[in-house]
Design brief:
Layout lengths: L10 E2 L4 H13 L4 E4 L16 E4 L6 E5 L4 E5 L4 H8 L4 E2 L12 H6 L7 H4 L2 H4 E7 L5 E4 L13 H4 L8 E8 L1 E2 L3 E9 L5 H12 L3 E8 H9 L8 H4 L4 E9 L2 H17 L7 E4 L3 H12 L1 H8 L1 E8 L5 H14 L8 E9 L4 E8 L4 H7 L2 H8 L24 H14 L14
Parallel strand pairs: 1-3, 2-3
Antiparallel strand pairs: 4-5, 5-9, 6-10, 7-8, 7-9, 11-13, 11-14, 12-13, 12-16, 15-17, 16-17
Helix pairs in contact: 7-10, 8-12
The structure holds D-malate (MLT) and zinc ion (ZN).
Length: about 450
Amino acid sequence: MNKYHGRSTTVLRPRNTKEVSEIVKHCNERRIGIVPQGGNTGLVGGSVPIKDELVISLGNMTNIRSFDDASGILVADAGCILQSLSDYLAPHDHIVPLDLGAKGSCQIGGNVSTNAGGLRLLRYGSLHGSVLGLEVVLPDGTILDQLTTLRKDNTGYDLKQLFIGAEGTLGIVTGVSILAASAPQASNNVMLALPTFDNVLPLYREVKRQLSEILSAFEFIDRRAYDLAVKHGQGRALNESDVEGAECFVLVETSGSKREHDEEKLNTLLENLMEAEPSLINTGVLASSPAQFASLWAIREGLTESMSKEGKAYKYDISVPLHKFKEVIDTTRDHLQSKGLMRDDAVKHVVGYGHVGDGNLHLNVVADAYTPEIESALEPFVYELVAKYKGSISAEHGIGVMKTHALPYSKNAVSIEVMKRIKHLFDPNGIMNPGKVLEL
Ligand code: MLT
Ligand code: ZN
């Protein structure tokens, strides 16, 4: 994003857990701050130093430690790239229960540390459920081995949960045990063009009802976001006639075990939607080949990149009630307009996309440059809006450095106090990813 910059001079790239442990022990004794770094694809500055911390990159730790194709349990080093884990599992008829646009660079340790949500959480649930165990190097160098491969283990505090989403502030995740899912035997997708946002929720209800167990994604893209993806060459644009009059789009994916059965369900859904009076959709573009399937996903997965290509993106990753998605986008745009900031040399676009099934909206404000004027117009405005709807200021991207000051909008004082105590318990010298999640 080119938004956060540190002044570090040193990156260490350990090859195994023991090396991580020795480095961390050394740093703790000398009070040297550490920033653990995975694929560096985070969006809140969590893996970027704020001063001159030592960067520990996990990129050299890429061993797959074990895989059991009966239980589906995979144990891997933290530095394994998400896509390479998927490639490894494919011949074993399994998939990683997590998928996101950054899969080609993000690492499983980073995914776990940020509790990444992604495109199929609707189907496979959160990492708090699918991660079975972790190996973590604690801030004093101790190796906490919780790398269990048990599905059930009800023996006291579930310590691993503390490190899922801790963004490297409590220790460095070096190994992950995760429950892989059976690979779907048939997948399909369809891009639905909607005349109005008001149809998104009725559509979601209908799609869930008709597709039921084969529904694996339901992604919302507003018209402006779609136009930017097309402008920046993400996926193949739909035909003019398919997009005409569309206020927004929904990408629906099915994953099941029998192609004919799934196709029949999807076709029936489309027919029903088109025939309904009034229809919830203008059109639906059904993937007719693996290339088209990939291209429809490329539009959705390429949104982040297209925002960055268009300008400097202020990204708000929020949970709000589904029926408020459009209101949040429109209210933010109106607010910027009233401040005189909706101009080509200030804010160019206010767009929304996100994971409807998870109640997670990505509000993106694309500007010509990052400026204090725009930032003070957006914050705390957006956070107050979220708090008004009792939402979360970070649905899946984490707090990083971007939102430490905004934590009280989503967490009460008692919760923050407990978080501080936990941080102090694990990291009394404050060396582990300082200034992230909790303010310095
Ligand atoms: C996504 O859903 O595309 C990611 O969370 C990244 C983003 O918000 O741009
Ligand atoms: Zn997302």
